[in-house]
Amino acid sequence: MDKRNLWQRMNGPAKVGSVFAALGAILTIIGVIRDPTTPVTAWSLGMGALISGATWGLVSWAIATAAVEVERDLARRTAEEQDHSEKHAT
Prior knowledge:
Helices cover 83% and strands 0% of the residues. The chain has 90 residues and is mostly helical. It has one domain (12-89). The longest helix has 48 residues, at 42-89. The chain is elongated and about 70 Å long.
């Protein structure tokens, strides 16, 4: 069984998504509390935190995943170009 904690087992995009989800939820809770026109109820706090946390988390995870994929593709293409140039140089 893997003894590492959850944070250590998560990949980079999942960590980015989790951090931004937490930030989105915290900022929404702060906004609901500070806004005098919004009733501060468990429902408004919970739904606001859920919607904003899920949105921020999902979007940031998708962007981070795309960035990782682009970097992986660039690294693979660079390696292929180096192999190709080494084969033709000899």
